[in-house]
C-alpha cells in the first residue's frame, strides 16, 4: 500500500500518523522531520497560504458544512499578521489589513510559530504532495457529509464520548485504527485528541492520493507566494 501521512500540531511538535501496510505514529519536533518521511501525500491540519486581508474562502466553505462543530475552523489572519512574533504587532497588522478591521485572538496567535514553520518550508511545487486538511471536515465526510453531534473536547478537556465516536467513524471508513500502536507520549506532548485528529488527516491523505477528496473551495485562489489556499477532506 502506498504510504500516506496525516499530521496534527501538538504541544510537543507534530504528531504524524503513517499509513501503509502497517500504521504507525511518530512525534516529530520539527516539520522538516515530517517532510523527510516517506509518503506519497502528507496531509496536515494547519493553514497553508495566507490572505492579504483576513479570512479565506476555504474556512468559510468548511464552516458552512460543520454545524455545531464549525467553531473548530478559525479564520486565518493576514500574512502580515502571521509573520509578527509580538501579539500587539500582530493585532495591529491584522487591523490594518482586514475589512472590517479585526484583531487576532490569543488562541490563534499561539499557533503562529507552527504556521510560519510550514510557510518557511513549503513551495507551490511541494503542494502536489503536501495538502492542508481539517480533522472535523474529514469526520464530516466519514459521517455521510453530516456534522458530528458530539464535540471532541468539553471545557478544554478530552470528551470521551466524542473521541469514541470519531474512532468508530475512522474504523467504519476503512482506517485501521485497531492496528494503531498504543500511545506512550506524555499528555504534555501529545493529547488523545491530537492522535485521533492525525488519524483523520491520514484518512484524508489517502482520499487525496486516490483522487476521491473534496476540496473547498473547488477552484482555490493563490496567496502572494503562489500557494493554493484550500482545505481537502
Textual characterization of the structure:
This protein starts with a strand and ends with a strand. Strands 3-2-1-4-5 form a 5-stranded mixed sheet. A two-stranded antiparallel sheet has the order 6-7. A two-stranded antiparallel ribbon has the order 8-9. It is built from 9 helices and 9 strands. The protein is an alpha/beta fold and 233 residues long.
Shape: globular
The average pLDDT is: 96
Structure class: alpha/beta
> What's the gyration radius in Å?
17 Å
Straight-line distance between termini: 20 Å
Main sheet overview: 5 strands, mixed
Q: Give the % helix.
A: 25-40%
Strand content: 15-25%
Low-confidence stretches: none
Total helical segments: 9
Can you write the helix and strand succession as a string?
A: EEEHEHHHHHEHEEHHEE
Largest sheet, order of strands side by side?
Answer: 3-2-1-4-5
What's the β-strand tally? 9
Task: Please outline the helices and strands.
Blueprint: E1 4-10, E2 13-19, E3 23-28, H1 31-35, E4 41-45, H2 57-63, H3 79-82, H4 87-97, H5 106-109, H6 112-121, E5 130-132, H7 135-142, E6 153-154, E7 157-158, H8 160-172, H9 192-209, E8 215-216, E9 231-232
Parallel strand pairs: 1-4, 4-5
Antiparallel strand pairs: 1-2, 2-3, 6-7, 8-9
Helix pairs in contact: 7-9, 8-9
Amino acid at each position: 500500500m502506498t504510504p500516506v501521512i496525516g499530521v496534527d500540531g501538538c504541544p510537543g511538535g507534530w504528531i504524524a500518523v503513517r499509513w501503509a501496510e502497517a500504521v504507525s505514529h511518530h512525534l516529530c519536533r520539527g516539520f522538516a522531520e515530517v517532510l523527510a518521511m516517506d509518503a506519497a501525500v502528507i496531509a496536515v491540519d494547519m493553514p497553508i497560504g495566507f490572505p492579504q486581508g483576513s479570512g479565506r474562502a476555504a474556512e468559510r466553505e468548511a464552516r458552512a458544512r460543520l454545524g455545531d462543530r464549525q467553531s473548530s475552523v478559525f479564520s486565518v489572519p493576514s500574512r502580515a499578521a502571521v509573520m509578527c512574533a509580538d501579539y500587539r504587532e500582530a493585532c495591529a497588522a491584522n487591523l490594518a489589513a482586514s475589512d472590517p478591521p479585526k484583531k487576532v485572538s490569543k488562541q490563534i496567535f499561539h499557533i503562529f510559530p507552527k504556521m510560519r514553520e510550514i510557510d518557511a518550508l513549503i513551495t507551490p511545487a511541494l503542494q502536489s504532495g503536501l495538502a492542508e486538511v481539517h480533522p472535523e471536515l474529514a469526520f464530516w465526510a466519514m459521517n455521510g457529509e453530516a456534522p458530528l453531534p458530539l464535540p471532541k473536547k468539553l471545557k478544554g478537556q478530552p470528551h470521551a464520548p466524542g473521541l469514541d465516536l470519531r474512532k468508530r467513524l475512522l474504523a467504519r471508513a476503512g482506517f485501521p485504527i485497531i492496528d494503531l500502536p498504543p500511545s506512550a507520549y506524555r499528555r504534555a506532548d501529545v493529547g488523545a485528541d491530537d492522535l485521533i485528529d492525525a488519524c483523520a488527516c491520514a484518512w484524508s491523505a489517502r482520499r487525496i492520493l486516490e483522487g476521491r477528496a473534496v476540496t473547498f473551495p473547488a477552484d482555490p485562489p493563490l496567496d502572494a507566494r503562489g500557494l493554493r489556499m484550500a482545505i481537502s477532506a
